[in-house]
Hints:
Radius of gyration: 24 Å
Strand order of the largest sheet: 1-19-16-21-14-13
Bound molecules: 2,5-dihydroxybenzoic acid
CATH topology: Jelly Rolls
Structural class: alpha+beta
Mean pLDDT: 94
CATH architecture: Sandwich
Amino acid sequence: MAVSTAQKKPTAKAPGPKDNVDAIRQGYYDRIGAYDMAPLWEVLKGLVVTEPKSVAAPKVWHYKDVRPLIAEAGELITAKEAERRVLVLENPALRGKSRATNTLFAGLQLIMPGEIAPAHRHSASAIRFVLDGEGAYTAVEGEKSIMKPGDFVITANWDAHDHGNTSDKPMVWLDVLDLPTVNFFESMFAEHLDDEAQTTGREDGDSMARYGSGVLPDGAVTFSKKTPIVNYTYERTRPILDRLKRAGDIDKRHGARVRYANPVTGGWALPTMGAHLALLPKGFEGENYRSTDGTIFVCVEGKGTTKLDDKTLEWSPNDVFVVPSWQRYAHNATEESVLFSISDRPVQEALGIWREGN
Length: 358
Ligand code: GTQ
């Protein structure tokens, strides 16, 4: 609600012409307020800002600090009880809102050996980026995919999914979901499925073989908004970064970088979230960059820093960090490093509001 300065700071002196104007205006605001109306001119500057000023803060979660706390959650609650045993990565400027950036949810999910996170589906899309452990699976729409560190696994909007750990070690991965975006549009639906684990009819790697090999199943649709691929394995993507590096295809801001694509359209893997994998050669000193998509990064390999205007984030393997919208940053790698990143860029591009600069 608009409150005039005259009301906020009452003065002792006798009312002058200025105070009178303020008082008259305030009286008017109160009267229109009774009809649920408000004067735009009191709030215009905060609505139409000259450039983005993110409500989110830069932040890094160091894996060495949080790993023991994640392990503790394994003793506190079962995956079945929790449905999803996840520690939410809350942006320090947005505590209590379950978001890492203004539009994206991020969390660290733990599955202990023998556990199943039961099947469900929802209008939010999810991605998993595997940090620790090997051999648990995610089943998505009947394809069971065994996950290894660095794998990028997609659960697109309304796809049935369950997770299970048939290995003998705990598994931890980063979940990123477009929950705040879908909830902003008030378009969330969810349902539990009767079977705890889906019956899987397709082999591991099936969707990548069918859709990611330069051929397509005859008659495949060529317009889908979501990728048909379930798991973009690290084993497959990582060597491509070396090819780019050897060929000298190194962007001065991003390093040798690939974009995870929907192979049938060439577009983003999901309509709401876009992801990249980048190699920063040892000694890389990136040029300044900024863009309107607040971004969540994961250090997969190496060691380095990301310098923002008034903060430097240090990272090493499995650290997760956030660069808010339109904040200038530059990556520096003290060792050859690999960074995964994900943001809401596809949404902004679809709306025609995405911008980048330096
Ligand atoms: O795995 O389905 O971190 O529904 C948050 C909500 C994971 C999941 C999360 C979810 C999931």
